[in-house]
Write a structure and sequence with these properties.
Elements lengths: L20 E2 L23 E8 L3 E2 L3 E4 L10 H5 L2 E3 L2 E5 L5 E4 L1 H14 L7 H14 L11 E10 L11 E11 L10 E6 L16 H5 L2 H9 L4 E6 L4 E5 L2 E8 L5 E5 L10 H13 L3 E4 L4 H9 L3 E8 L3 E10 L2 E4 L8 H15 L4 H6 L4 E3 L2
Parallel strand pairs: 1-4, 10-11, 10-17, 14-15
Antiparallel strand pairs: 2-3, 2-4, 2-9, 5-8, 6-7, 6-8, 7-19, 8-9, 11-12, 12-13, 13-14, 13-16, 16-17, 17-18
Helix pairs in contact: 2-3
Length: 382
Amino acid sequence: ASCRAASPPGTATAPPAADLVIELSQTHKAKPDLTNLVFGTVFSDHMLTIEWTSNGGWQKPHIKPFGNLSLHPACSAMHYAVQLFEGMKAYRDADDKVRLFRPMLNMNRMANSAERACLPAFDRAELVECIRRLVQVDLEWVPKSDSASLYIRPTFLGTEPSLGVKKPSRALLYVILSPVGSYFSTGAKPVSLWADSKYIRAWRGGTGDCKMGGNYGASIYAQYEAADYGCQQVLWLYGDDHQITEVGTMNMFLFWNNENGEEELATPPLDGIILPGITRQSILELTRKWGEFKVCERYLTMADLRCALKEGRVKEMFGSGTACVVSPVGRILYQGENLHIPCQDDFPQLASRLMKELTDIQHTDYSIEIHTRFISILSPLC
């Protein structure tokens, strides 16, 4: 149902989301304590599954009780990482309405990842509708809190039952839901980063701009090495000039006075290495709308950062992403030197303002102007 119009010619397409089959769970799990939520460890009562085969195309979508998957031992997702995922959220406002935050941007990115992984095309609007229906079924799992939300994890697997390295003839698209609070165990406090060129997150011509599981699995070793150095995240560098790319699993922003003395918010360009984050795009759109300082997508190196810190030109540095929204950076360990980033009162001024603006959009209908500007953001579920 959620995957039809974009299918290749000659391939059977899925029925509309109106044909979705719903099997409600006979038991309901207890809702978690929102004050002690560990990210991604608690799941709702139901899940969405949609199967695809090269002969039959997309099958009917099913919402059914949350449970384990049954996969062939030769499944291509497990052997050759023919797999991708997305991360998005549903928010509840003070009037008890629930919204998805810019879901079509997630679908666009997911379609790009699917093409790169040789997985079948899908109708993005139909998939959003199926996800909307899933959230409606588990509506009580959307936290009634402005500091928590329901994390939505669409996942797409190649389920080819063969050890041949080839485009899969079978696939499974499924969606699970997880109520979440703060991504970091320390809460909304500045994070510390380990910057080293020893490990590379992505490279040009690779899959750095796709949300594939292999990108994340390969980063775990470096994450633990960062912890050994007393840092929470890795600042990923690229090339001989140590270009700054991403912060852990987040996009990176630097707010500074640039080389020309201009007040500037800068983030690396989407050149195939950087994941096109939905929060990243929202921050660029918001700050360009403000028109208060220069907003630029440009290359930044560690030499640029060190020089700017030495000359007192750095104002703030922060990461952005669906899980954390905005996360200030307080310290970077680079070549044995601790580089201290200005962080007034734990949450610096611009990061704090962006956090408020974005959460206001996600949780409230606080501004007609914002509502109009981000009409694609506000998608009422009820």
